[in-house]
Amino acid sequence: MSLVTEFTKNTEDPLLFETFKPKIQAYKNELTAGILDEYKLPEDMIPNKFGVDVTKIPPKVLSENELEITESTGTVLEKRLQAGELTAVEVFEAFAKRATAAHQLTNCAMQLFMKEGLERAKSLDKYFQETGKTVGPLHGLPVSLKEHYMYKGKVTNAGYVVWVDRITNDWALTVKLLLDAGAVFYIRTTEPQTIMHLCSNNNIIGLCRNPNNTSLTTGGSSSGEGALAAMKGSVFGLGSDIGGSIRCPAAFCGVWGLRPTQKRLSMKNCASACTGEAEVVCCVLGPIARSADDIDLFMDSIISQKPWENDATVIPLPWRKVQEPGISTLTIAICYDDGVVKPVTPILRGLNYARQKLVAAGVKVIEWKPIEVDELVSACGSMYNSDACLDQINALAASGEPLKKLSKVALSFGCGEKGVDVTEYQRLALLRDTYRNVYQDTMKKFGIDYILSPAYVSVAAKPETVHYWGYTNLWNILDFPNVIFPTGLRCDPLVDPPDTSYKSRSDIEAYERGLYDDAKKFENAPISLQLTGKRWFDEELVKAAKVVEQEITK
Amino acid sequence: MSLVTEFTKNTEDPLLFETFKPKIQAYKNELTAGILDEYKLPEDMIPNKFGVDVTKIPPKVLSENELEITESTGTVLEKRLQAGELTAVEVFEAFAKRATAAHQLTNCAMQLFMKEGLERAKSLDKYFQETGKTVGPLHGLPVSLKEHYMYKGKVTNAGYVVWVDRITNDWALTVKLLLDAGAVFYIRTTEPQTIMHLCSNNNIIGLCRNPNNTSLTTGGSSSGEGALAAMKGSVFGLGSDIGGSIRCPAAFCGVWGLRPTQKRLSMKNCASACTGEAEVVCCVLGPIARSADDIDLFMDSIISQKPWENDATVIPLPWRKVQEPGISTLTIAICYDDGVVKPVTPILRGLNYARQKLVAAGVKVIEWKPIEVDELVSACGSMYNSDACLDQINALAASGEPLKKLSKVALSFGCGEKGVDVTEYQRLALLRDTYRNVYQDTMKKFGIDYILSPAYVSVAAKPETVHYWGYTNLWNILDFPNVIFPTGLRCDPLVDPPDTSYKSRSDIEAYERGLYDDAKKFENAPISLQLTGKRWFDEELVKAAKVVEQEITK
Predict the structure, then answer these.
(1) Residue A8 lies in a domain
(2) Is the pLDDT of residue B1 over 50?
(3) d(CA B183, CA B116)
(4) From A217's CA, which of A163, B111, B241, B477 has a CA 20 to 30 Å away?
């Protein structure tokens, strides 16, 4: 695998970009103004250096009640809200405080609109008081949103400077369904330029930092969602994933994430530069959350509203109630190496730790032999850039904004700026469909229920360094669903030294493994894993991930 | 709408084609040899001219028992087989006789293998006698297959001369599932060159004739299935449809057909020249049958076997048991004119007749206003030919076979031989998705349950004349499912004169309406209609079509 092309097009125009700076400043000012005094973390609690675990800071300023609320899962909170034991306002204010602190400590938000959130919470309480009923299964739960879903009456920029003042006058359907289920909105979270980095940098609000170690990246592209979930600044949030954008931040930040099978949640009115992205490899929406049960609640609350009635591209598969599998009934194949880039020490430790725990619990554990990962990942890159990056180039050039390092990398994937012709495009689609069957048949042949693998070669990386998406985007091209969960382990310099004796098989492997150059720099980064199930069987996967995580973290 | 390009590429090579002639002859000889003496219609019963209704001929040579069997629906036959009241051999022999006659009278078969069918029937009877059980829900039912599905150990040519001796060593998955459900195979039916005509001509066995009037075409591309169903030579058959290929022959021949929503039945190992056809507009498999109940039986027998376990591209939507709707609860919008080519007299009569019957039954009937049919049909044409017809050109040029008139027309649809680039390809996909929602939203807005429309501008046409696919391929691009059913009416020269006063709005309209130049030529052609439902809700559609047909034919 190599980045087969280099991105050479010049989309930058400093003079043009200059004209956008006042708009960017206005946008940032509004964000700063969104940090309300009543929720604000005292300035002196904000560390003046990086490399800090800032997850420990908000608890210092929260009341016991606020702490209890924000430490709870959505499933627990919702029960208490439905029972009238908690008010929506009470819940909202706890999360508003914690989310505000999260933003101050990590730069995770693009928009904060706490007053609107509070009004919404009040109206929900009023409804409950007057009717004795809740409005839906998420009644009163503070839910965060990645920025690029259209939000009625607000700017939606999708990480592009040109759209920094573009107000969208409609709702993304999935956002609207969350709202109708009773969610309270108050924060829209950050994403990288082009929404195509496993990192966070953009020319609007800049980098977002990993709460576990602020020298590191949150991953991306649902960068702000990853940070906010680790900071417990929302119950759960809506992310999106076409190459790892839910899973990478969930893994890097040490929380849960589901990339469901495509066309189960609606993509209607999600903004991006890529008009054609829904065809050969599909972006999907999904939750970044703090427990398997919350993923279940999230998915059920949307799908029970029959999104297919408002979006003909959604498949009418109900979100089924399934039982947790008995742990000892499972056969799990572990992928220790995808044959392209071997994971570094802490990830291998996580995999081995998981294996031991699972074997001890009676799981049948076998080794997963990688299948044509190189070709599939390269094909996926060509799918992203099949239009010769035209849509993205146009959106970038429209403001002349500086091109971020990782935008350049993403624009060079596969065919890069050369694009493909329709014959090649269809060949890629055929390759995809062929390997969907090869993978499914292989799982069937060996009786494999789930595949356990890394989400990335390493733990959270240094900002703007990750080039290799293979551990996540393999599954985007195959469209097998994945759950990310934390193992409870963290990178520990004492036990996770880089393996300096390893001989890399390629430039990309040497580059990627070389990033893990000094374990100390990665201290406290969560070690997370990815569980992959069969296409369309998301419900079973979530339940399996629940029991697997329970066993591993016992 | 116009055929925006002309197909100018020369794929013909008479010298090369000469070298294929012995292979074609061998193939034809085998077909002739498949007409067994024991099932053969006496030569003197074969009319020596066209323009004949040959459906009336086989009953003259069938025994009372054979007649009763072949006149029965699959649903009824299967009950009797399961109860042991009929043997598989008894059923098979009746259909073998009628299918052989059907082929002699219409040229509907590409392969006949009656001995294998008989052996299979015998083995099913043996199994039943020994175990008291049937092998599955189609136990002992004679089922026909369009030729282009891979059949283990037999030639699969997909209508191309180059493949006239290509033996395929695997099963098409859907065919295998029919077999596993208990079907008996004995006939593979004809299709046109490129499988892209709403007609039947190819350079292997030539034209197939409409049983109701042998001067007319069966339609296509499931041409042989249409003829065989009208001749009652199988219980039902497996067709395929990317532009009307199930619906057109069902309509022209006066039988039932379902084009289900995509990815409900597996396309695995269906042969065609188009490697990329599954991406932007999808071919689907579906039944050509003789009743709504049989469509239900057919679909259920396959989907209950969970095809998604053997094909990851199939969506795990079970075939649901749904109730027939009360006729008076329905709101049906009737499309009298798609705004591109207005239907001719007998079709308008059929629509008006249906309207009267439905209104009398308490159906809320409104008029369907066409939505951008021109643009969508043209887009669909560009989707077919997006690769600049490369795959088809290569398959044609490989034998240098003469290019059939309607192949040339299909290769000129939309972008034609110019093809499109990826940007345009993705724009077409976006247009498709946009209009799927526009159509769904429109149905929702007006409370429309189903849309009733023609399947084509006219009744069965003269061979090799149909250019306009808009009444069917509109629904391929939108992927809304359709059922074709006969109204019981037939073209009648006394009441269906051409409307010579009509002023055509375009060349294509003038051409297509001009084909209906003399009602006498179309005498006895069935008047069929098309009922369209919501995407994925195939089950409800089939039940609705059942009650609608019952009402109209009362």
Answers:
(1) no
(2) no
(3) 12
(4) A163
pLDDT in tens, A413-457: 999 999 999 999 999 999 999 999 999 999 999 999 999 999 999
The H or E element containing residue A474 is helix A470-478
pLDDT digits (tens, 9 = 90+) for B262-290: 999 999 999 998 866 668 999 999 999 99
CA A212 to chain centre: 16
* CB of A102 closer than 8 Å to CB of A58: yes
A291 is in an annotated binding site: no
A388 touches chain B (CB under 8 A): yes
Q: What is the 3-state secondary structure (H, E, C) of A525-536?
A: CEEEEEEECCCC
Whole-angstrom CA distances from A369 to A366, A439, A440, A442, A479 are: 9, 11, 13, 10, 19
Contact A430 B312 (CB under 8 A): no
Instruction: State the helix-helix crossing angle for B88-106 and B74-82, rounded to 10 degrees.
Output: 150
User: How far is B106 from B104, CA to CA, in rounded Å?
Assistant: 6
DSSP state of A111: E
Closest CA to B405 of B194, B110, B108: B194
H or E, element range at A333: strand A331-334
In a domain, A180, yes or no: yes
Which residue out of A72, A221, A222, A399 is catalytically annotated? A221
- B422 touching A (Cβ < 8 Å): yes
Residue of A279, A316, A444 lying closest to B426 (CB–CB): A279
CB nearest A387 (choices: B309, B426, B433): B426
Dump the DSSP string for A45-90: GS-SSSS--GGGSHHHHS-HHHHHHHHS-HHHHHHHHHTTSS-HHH
Amino acid symbol at A298? F
The one-character DSSP state at B352 is H
Answer yes or no: do B279 and A429 touch at CB < 8 A.
yes
Per CB-CB distance under 8 Å, the chain A contacts of B536 are 308, 315-316
> In this structure, which amino acid lies at residue A443?
M
Answer yes or no: is B6 within a domain: no
Task: Give the whole-angstrom CA distance, residue B266 versus residue B245.
Answer: 17
Domain that holds residue A526: 15-552
The residue among B188, B181, B209, B192 whose CA lies nearest residue B145 is: B188
What's the CA gap between B537 and B466, in Å, rounded? 30
Across-strand partners of A168?
A154
| Residue B397 Cα distances to B8, B162, B206, B402, angstroms | 13, 9, 19, 9
* CB proximity A308 to B under 8 Å: yes
Q: Tell me the pTM.
A: 0.97
B contact residues 453-512, partner A, Cβ 8 Å cutoff? none
Whether residue A195 is annotated as binding a ligand: the answer is yes
Per the CB < 8 A criterion, the answer to whether A104 and A35 are in contact is: yes
d(CA B54, CA B65): 21
Closest approach of chain A CAs to the CA of B387, in angstroms?
Answer: 5
Q: Report whether pLDDT(B2) > 60.
A: no
Q: Which helix (H) or strand (E) holds B333?
A: strand B331-334
Question: What is the domain-level CATH number for residue A318?
Answer: 3.90.1300.10
Write the residue in B390, B430, B444 that is nearest to A275 by C-beta. B430
Count of helices and strands (H, E) across chain A: 18, 13
Structural domains counted in chain A: 1
**Type of residue at A94:** A
Give A197's contacts (C-beta < 8 A, 6+ positions apart): A220, A221, A404, A406, A407, A409, A410, A464, A466
Cβ–Cβ < 8 Å for B156, B191: no
Question: A379: Cβ–Cβ under 8 A, 6 or more apart, which residues?
Answer: A414, A428, A431, A432, A477
The string of pLDDT tens digits covering residues B369-418 is: 999 999 999 999 999 999 999 999 999 999 999 999 999 999 999 999 99
- Cβ–Cβ of A437/B536 closer than 8 Å? no
Question: Of A344, A352, A283, A419, which is closest to residue A4 (Cα–Cα)?
Answer: A419
